[in-house]
Structure formats: structure tokens, C-alpha cells
Amino acid sequence: MKPMIMGIVNLTSDSFYKNSRFTSDKELIEKVEGMIRDGMDIIDIGAFSSRPGAKIVSEMEEWDRLQEGLKLIRREFPGLYVSVDTFRSGIAKKSIDEGADIINDISGGDADDGMFDVITKSGIPYILMHMKGTSETMQTLTKYENLLLELIQFFEKRVKKLYQMGHNDIIIDPGIGFSKTIDQNYEILKNLDYFKVLKLPLLVGVSRKSLIYKKFGTTPDEALNGTSVLNTFAVRNGASILRVHDVKEAREVVELANLVTN
């Protein structure tokens, strides 16, 4: 099965990459239409910036930013798979009630004890990501005795709990760029096969992140080529979903990698 493409839409002005931000209904609709034409399978929308150092916003503010965009996308694109990027169970519950198909939780259930209950009751797919701390503190929490082993233990503990609660539709995300140094991010990418022991779909999100542009002393605007390189590597090594800002280029990666490997 070919990897799926998840396109990123941020309903906040605080995203690290300006071209994923939207400020009007017309702009949002046009962008989503373009992403669908380019081959997007899933749209991932969020209203809470998780870039390193981002300020924490209240749950009310997050929902105020999110709800109209979610309703608009659900109304204009009823057949589109919609993922909501949130670590708050209250936002997850409201989003599911508004038609969200997937919840993408950067905290892996750590930030809100109610998240697993919401997910289990809904039965919808859940993206379980690894990170430590919050957006404000995560880049101070990069010490690991054994990075890969600690990630596997993190996932095993939470997956086991979800299984015990009766929820089986789980996607794992190693959390590239979240409480990891640049070298640790590359260690994860070099060892994606390691995560096959979990026997779950794997999401990889490297799009325009600092592990690319900081290597070259550039900016997110100049990180598309590096993103495609790393996405190609991820596809070749077991990624089931690529989370990206640039759908057309990611679709080309998937199609060309499929021709080479099959």
C-alpha cells in the first residue's frame, strides 16, 4: 500500500512556516482545493502552535481558532479525511462532534488524562506522538540514556493501555523535532525499521523542520528540497503517512519511490 499524504493547515499566526497559516475563509478553501488537486489524502488542521518555544494558549482560544475552520472544511469538502491536531481531550471531543475523522495528539496522551477516554469512546484513529514537556520546554528535555529504546518503551506503554481500554486504531509518530536534538532526529530517521516491532502504521513529519534548514544555515522557506530527500528515505523505510506542507512534491516522492521499489 502506498504511503498516504497528510497536508498541514495551521489556523494560527504562530506556525513556524508562514505558508501553512490562513486568515480568511476564501484563502483556506482555495488552499485546501489546491492540496486535494495535488494528491492530499488527509488534511491535518490545528489551532495551537507546537513550534519550539511557542506560547501556551487557553483551551477556549484554541477552540475559537479551530471551530470555524473545521466546520468550513467539513461543509466544503465532505469526503475529505480530516485530522485535528490537539492534545486536549475537550478539543478532541468537540472536534469529533463536528466531524473530525482522526485525532493527532503531539503529547501521546501525556498532556491530558482524558484523551484516551475520548478516543476510546469515539473509536476513531488516533495518532500517538512522542514528545517530552511542552512546546515551551521540550527543547530543554533532550537527554536520553538510549533514545530508540526509550521511544519504544513510551509507545509500548501507551499502546498497551489503549488496547486494554478497547481501542486498536493507532498510528505512531516518533516526533521528529519534538524534544530531540538535530542529531537525535537523524538517529530516529536512520532507524525507522526499529519501530516495526510495534506492528502499527508509522507517521513521519520532517516537513521544512530545523533538522533540515539548520544544517545549511537557511530557513524553512528554503527547506523543500531537503524535505523531499528525507521523505524519500522515510518512504523507503516504512513510513505509512507523510505529514507535509507541500503536497505535490510529497506525492511525487511517493509515486517515484513506488516505481523504484515495486
Alpha carbon gyration radius: 17 Å
CATH topology: TIM Barrel
Sheet with the most strands? Answer: 8 strands, parallel
What is the architecture at the second tier of CATH? Alpha-Beta Barrel
Gross morphology is globular
Into how many domains do the coordinates divide?
A: 1
Number of DSSP strand runs: 8
Q: What is the CATH superfamily?
A: Dihydropteroate synthase-like
Number of helices: 9
Helix and strand arrangement:
Blueprint: E1 4-10, H1 25-37, E2 42-46, H2 59-76, E3 81-85, H3 89-97, E4 102-105, H4 115-122, E5 126-129, H5 147-165, E6 170-173, H6 182-190, E7 203-204, H7 210-216, H8 224-236, E8 241-244, H9 247-261
Parallel strand pairs: 1-2, 1-8, 2-3, 3-4, 4-5, 5-6, 7-8
Helix pairs in contact: 1-2, 3-4, 8-9
Short overview:
The protein is of the alpha/beta class. It has helices spanning 25-37, 59-76, 89-97, 115-122, 147-165, 182-190, 210-216, 224-236, 247-261; strands spanning 4-10, 42-46, 81-85, 102-105, 126-129, 170-173, 203-204, 241-244. Helix 3 runs parallel beside helix 4 and helix 8 packs parallel to helix 9 (247-261).
Give a written overview of the molecule.
- The protein is of the alpha/beta class.
- The protein has a single domain, classed as Dihydropteroate synthase-like (TIM Barrel, Alpha-Beta Barrel).
- The chain is 42% helix and 13% strand.
- The protein contains nine helices and eight strands.
- The chain has an eight-stranded parallel beta sheet.
- The model has no long low-confidence stretch (mean pLDDT 92).
